[in-house]
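Reviewer 2 asked us to include a model.

Predict the structure of this chain.
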Amino acid sequence: MAKIYALRSHEARARNKLAKIEAENNPVIAKANLEQLAQDSFAGKTLGRVRKQIALVQDAIDGSIDSGESKQLKEYTDALSRLAEIERQLAGRPLPGSLRPKQEKSKRIASTSNEPDEV
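Predicted model (structure tokens):
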């Protein structure tokens, strides 16, 4: 039984290795596979639904601006902010300011002598 699972494992690794090489050689295929995977996943489907709801709420906001109903406008803008937060999380974007830019490493070359550097 263990030999069967080992054989399946080796076959799967070989298939994955070939698929990776093929994807590296053809970026169009890799992008299409990633997009299809994103659409098939729960997060991808939910992200699509949230984006549709955002579009509907934005249309409702435009309508309530025209009608001048402030209470409805506030409710719609609150809903829009909640949907935008959900969309940000599902899309995998960080909060603004949460990622710091990488600091550049010092380019100064260490001196091999014990004498101070001349200015």
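The longest helix spans residues 42-67. The chain has two domains: 1-37, 41-93. We have added this to the supplementary material.
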